[in-house]
């Protein structure tokens, strides 16, 4: 069977439980939004193929569980990742503070050249914002 893409990228979504990693993934892969919260058990993934500059790029996006009890399972998936998206909830200060711990996990378990991106999620709830845009950008620049 011939492959139907030019490039394959493995990407991870990491962050505390409840920050919206699964919703981000579902919106990107299915263009839908699910209002029901169901905590990810272990790890899940979706695939989406996009066209960019005349190339077909297959994105394999892994959604990791945020709970501590799944940490040893999910860190095994850091290996081979080309990009890691660290997600925090702008309405939850603790999820933002924990970004430092997630960065440490990346440094311990991922390749040194992995691309990183910090995503402040739940921006539609700006009236409940606890983390300023400036603070988020500062952490993103240091990541």
Please provide the ordered H/E string of secondary-structure elements.
Answer: EHEEHEHHEH
What structural class do helix, strand and pairing data support?
alpha/beta
Gyration radius from CA atoms, angstroms: 15 Å
Please describe the biggest sheet, giving its number of strands, its sense, and whether it closes into a barrel.
5 strands, mixed
The CATH superfamily label reads P-loop containing nucleotide triphosphate hydrolases
Task: Round the mean pLDDT to the nearest integer and report it.
Answer: 87
Count of extended strands:
5
CATH C-level name = Alpha Beta
What's the number of helices?
5
Strand order of the largest sheet: 2-3-1-4-5
* Count of spatially separate domains: 1
Report, as a whole number of angstroms, the end-to-end distance: 40 Å
Structural shape: globular
Report the sheet-strand fraction.
Answer: 25-35%
* Topology-level CATH name: Rossmann fold
Q: Low-confidence parts lasting 5 or more residues at pLDDT below 50?
A: none
Give me the CATH architecture, please. Answer: 3-Layer(aba) Sandwich
User: Roughly what percent helix?
Assistant: 25-40%
